[in-house]
Design a protein that fits this description.
10 strands; 40% helix; 7-stranded parallel sheet; alpha/beta; globular; 3-stranded antiparallel sheet; Rossmann fold; binds 1,4-dihydronicotinamide adenine dinucleotide; 302 residues
Length: 302
Amino acid sequence: MEPATRSVGEAKEQADGRLAGKVAVITGGASGMGRATVERFLDEGASVVIGDLNADAGHAFMAELNQAGCGERARFSRTDVAVEDDVAAMTELAVEAFGRLDVVFNNAGIGGAFGPITELDVDAWDETFAILVRSVMLGTKHAARHMIPQGSGGSIINTASIAGVGGGAGPQAYSAAKAAVISLAQTTAVELAPHRIRVNAICPGLIFTPLMHSGNEAQAEEVMRETQPWPGRGEGADIASAALFLASDDGQFVSGQQLVVDGAMLAAGPRIHGRMHNTRNLHRTAGMAYGTTGKAATVRRL
Ligand code: NAI
């Protein structure tokens, strides 16, 4: 398995990589699995636009990339993926800076609305859908607007979740939103196939990122041990490997699929709900969690 963070840009010369000459946009690229994918794609020769709401994390990451000597193939775009003008500017930046657009990884996300269904706040539900679903629609729309006239195909990858495949793996709004992300990958894969643009969803299980452990690593490890058949931790690098396959020519006949990357958790029937930090106090609190965006969660005691 690839380590979560590695010395970016050292592993291969740009010309030898599996993404040599390709240009990618990766949202949520300042943390977790998005960040791991930025590192992997740079290693494989791509140029990358990192889109993220968290500008502090984005600029800090860019400083690291500059230090590692591959900053010239990376740009940071402070982007709210739920806002169309931001998404349009982010994809435009890829073309302005690097001349084309081949891959868009719609990956940014948050935990979103939590609490019992009887207490679910409509605004929190809508905001969750804007950040998790509207974002993917916008990312796909603006990717296709560049890729179709380019005439050389492309790969769009959406981060869904095993929570989008069935119950037991996440709160209601999050799970329903991730199911919509899978559906959007299927419908747009059909629509864009004549242009040789592939669209797929990755469904991670428990992946050890700041969103998943929320600062409580010991509790997260315990839940993982109790619920996941595979003995090792899922890391951002595991999702980066799946994204690399879908982005590269190795995946050239794969479209409209859900690639589950979960250490056999879905096969065993996920029983995470009620154990993770955002569902542990299911009947005592409700609110909205903004993940690692830098925005504080709202919490209502019931
Ligand atoms: P993370 O919190 O480490 O990284 C997510 C990044 O997305 C952060 O940098 C955050 O600032 C950014 N972001 C959030 N809202 C944004 C917005 N509106 N606009 C732009 N950027 C925004 O989380 P992680 O775990 O890497 O999550 C990535 C994706 O994977 C998310 O879509 C999440 O729902 C999904 N996922 C995560 C799982 C896990 O176990 N970690 C499991 C299944 C799915």
